[in-house]
Amino acid sequence: MNLQRNFPLKNLNTFGIEAYANFFIELNNSDQIIEFLENSEYRNQPLLILGGGSNLLFANDFEGIVLKINNKGIVVVSEDEDFVIVKAFAGEVWLEFVDYCVEKNWGGIENLALIPGNVGSCPVQNIGAYGVEVKDTLFEIDAFRISDGQKRTFKNSECNFGYRNSIFKQELKNQYIIEAVSFKLRKKPILNRTYQALEREIQILGIENPTIKDLSEIICKIRREKLPDPEEIGNAGSFFKNPTINSENFKKLISEFPNIAYFKQSDGSFKLAAAWLIEQCRWKGSRFGDAGVHKNQALVLVNYGNAKGTEIVELAKNIQKSVLENFRVHIEMEVNIV
């Protein structure tokens, strides 16, 4: 366990923002996590737990310890004729874990292919795409409490999952280090093809009986066409959440904007497509110095090279303001600002 001072973070965040941490420590296994938590000299330092660095934006240097969790491993916990419970440690790359499960024909997370980040970060944000969220297959989470190093297992029902939300973003924010995440996956997969873009691509390719591997490959293709590669243009994927409004406000809005993109929810509310709202406000493809909105996807803010985190934040706030002025709807930032 090596403590490094004044550590550069540019290569550890997908936005590619230049920032520094007072201290940086990389933990490669569970024993090192325990050793860190037992060391009293670190107790009073602000702590930032870093996974793949794909869902945060550094607006400032970090005046504390950045902790990089890099423990690896994939283990089958139990299985029967229909299901397998597989545990992946927090430092596993999410895309590689999805690919591993797809190759085994374990179904449930194939719609989440190509989402950036590590396994340990996925339940914090309750990542989701193409009609599927992590909460749909997550079985339990093993985590260490930062205050005393005690280990706890969280069942799915204890995580308070919501849309891009969980107990680890709310009540227990910055209180636990996730060690590993277990998933309950189907040995006889049931494909989720509810999104029109998926079904349309399946028809174009002429696949009569698609497998989860077919679905995963199609989703990767669609994502690559729509979203910029962080290796080429700094970004953190979708920057804003899709806002949800009640039926009364929706009726008023659709009377003014009959072409508005929306998804009706089971509780009678309506989820609006934030990308549509932003695009109507003419932000798509705009650029201000090295900070901008991607030309193919209005939800994605980008760093073209040397943008500061504060410039990205200012752009995001201006987008929020214009959407509110034009549609009376607040769009919430999905990315964590540090």
Write structural notes for this entry.
With 338 residues, this protein is an alpha+beta fold. 25% of the residues lie in helices and 27% in strands. The chain folds into three domains: 4-69, Uridine Diphospho-n-acetylenolpyruvylglucosamine Reductase, domain 2, CATH 3.30.43; 74-186, Uridine Diphospho-n-acetylenolpyruvylglucosamine Reductase, domain 3 (2-Layer Sandwich); 234-337, UDP-N-acetylenolpyruvoylglucosamine reductase, C-terminal domain (Uridine Diphospho-n-acetylenolpyruvylglucosamine Reductase, domain 1). The chain has helices at residues 30-38, 94-103, 122-125, 196-205, 212-226, 247-256, 274-280, 309-327; strands at residues 4-8, 20-27, 47-50, 56-57, 62-69, 74-79, 83-89, 128-129, 132-133, 138-145, 151-155, 176-186, 234-238, 244-245, 262-264, 270-272, 287-288, 291-293, 300-303, 336-337. Helix 4 (196-205) packs across helix 5 (212-226). The chain is globular, with a radius of gyration of 21 Å.
